[in-house]
Design goal:
Number of strands: 30
Strand content: 35-45%
Helix content: 10-25%
Strand order of the largest sheet: 1-30-29-28
Length: about 425
């Protein structure tokens, strides 16, 4: 009689199987069924398929790794199919002015139990910030009317905090669960850009002031950690790297090269001079970070003669010695765009591919300039773009802003009377 394979040997064999094979193995007998649902088997499957699982772990007590894998696979199938029966669409109104920005405040990107909700906050020219339940299509709370129109906001889902700024430079933190005010800070002038950042030392807020100063504030207290003059008397835009170690600062409409700051030097007030470098490009217009790389930055700019659009990708490195830190910006790739193109949106897709929109076209290029494919299925110019995951890219015409928490999509739709509404698409996936 041949010896039976023990549980440890079966577990080792099952570790080489893919999800469909494990599901079939579970139907053989009771022993195989028990081993096929081992948490570690499904955790490894999730990590192999979705690297983001390391950043967004399974919410303990609400779902197993097996449930997570099956639900997320089903969600991606429904997103890709585009079938009307796979989602519910709602038009959500409430603001009496134009919605200027939205941000998700949902604390978990992938959660499929009955307590999971997709919640967004919006700011509007009607001087209010509001929170919305996208699946129900209802308003959760609205702030009191503020002294000036609110123009931008960022969210800290894990802190359940929303931070807004108005046209006069007043920054306010709001408790996302109730809408009550948490803290405030007034800039000397208006704000030109604001970015929520996380860090091992704790979350913080980056704010670019219209006078050219870059503020770093604590969260949620909104107290000044540092203030740096970057581009005097010039409005700026900010964007933080995925690993939150770098912040890119671009002077709007300026011929001066953009700067990259080493975040650690901004968080440490004892440093006299923040560590930064100026990139060797001019007339920059677009920038994006590669989501799968710690410090890979792509910039759209003009060539030395100002005649052609160029896309250049850099790798950033921090060189530390005993008493100082220096930044090395190494050029990785560069190419000239065709003169017929005038891209207005750019995003990185993985580490080697760039997404560009030119009027109604979506074009894919490698970072070396190889044109991969062009999608021409839009009738009107593409106004918003959002990368849901490695396979799915959302492209919209007529929406001024689009964001997604993967279970839902929220877009701002402008009305002819100068107001805006939210348009939500919530996918039907249940924990099994």
């Amino acid at each position: 009689m041949a010896p039976q394979i023990g549980p440890h040997e079966l577990l080792h064999v099952f570790s080489f199987l893919e999800a469909p094979d494990l599901l079939r193995a579970a139907q053989v007998n009771k022993v195989w069924n028990e081993i096929s649902v081992t948490q570690e088997l499904w955790r490894q499957l999730c990590l192999r398929r979705w690297a983001s699982c390391k950043a967004f772990p399974v919410v303990l007590g609400t779902q197993t790794w097996r449930q997570y894998y099956l639900c997320r696979s089903e969600l991606e199938f429904r997103v890709a199919s585009g079938r009307s029966q796979d989602f519910t669409c709602k038009a959500i109104s409430g603001h009496t002015g134009k919605i200027d920005q939205l941000a998700y405040i949902s604390p978990h990107e992938y959660r499929f139990d009955e307590r999971a909700r997709s919640v967004v906050c919006t700011v509007s020219s009607d001087c209010t910030v509001r929170a919305w339940d996208l699946r129900e299509g209802t308003e959760i709370w609205s702030s009191p009317v503020q002294p000036a129109p609110l123009v931008s906001l960022v969210a800290y889902p894990l802190l359940q905090l929303v931070v807004t700024v108005d046209t006069q430079g007043l920054i306010t933190g709001w408790k996302a669960e109730t809408g009550s005010e948490w803290a405030s800070f007034r800039l000397p002038t208006s704000c030109s850009s604001m970015e929520a950042c996380g860090h091992p030392e704790g979350p913080f807020l980056m704010v670019a002031c219209a006078d050219g100063n870059l503020y770093t504030l604590t969260v949620p207290q909104l107290q000044v950690l540092s203030k740096v003059v970057t581009f005097p008397h010039t409005s700026m835009t900010l964007t933080c790297s995925p690993d939150q170690q770098w912040v890119f600062v671009l002077a709007k409409g300026s011929d001066v090269g953009p700067k990259v700051f080493y975040v650690q030097s901004l968080l440490n007030p004892s440093e006299d001079i923040p560590v930064s470098t100026t990139l060797p490009v001019r007339l920059s217009s677009r920038v994006c970070w590669a989501p799968n790389e710690a410090a890979r930055l792509t910039v759209m700019h003009r060539d030395d003669r100002g005649m052609h659009l160029v896309i250049t990708t850099f790798i950033l490195k921090a060189s530390k010695s005993r008493d100082r830190v220096s930044i090395l910006a190494q050029q990785l790739a560069s190419f000239i765009l065709p003169d017929t193109m005038n891209p207005h949106l750019m995003q990185a897709h993985g580490s080697q591919v760039l997404l560009l929109t030119s009027r109604s076209e979506l074009l894919l290029f490698t970072i070396d300039g190889v044109h991969l494919i062009a999608f021409q299925d839009h009738q009107r110019p593409i106004t918003s773009m959002w990368v849901v995951n490695s396979w799915h890219v959302l492209r919209y015409s007529g929406f001024t802003h689009v964001k997604s928490d993967s279970r839902s999509i929220a877009g701002v739709e402008a009305r002819s009377n100068g107001t805006s509404i939210l348009r939500s698409y919530c996918y039907k996936v249940q924990l099994r």
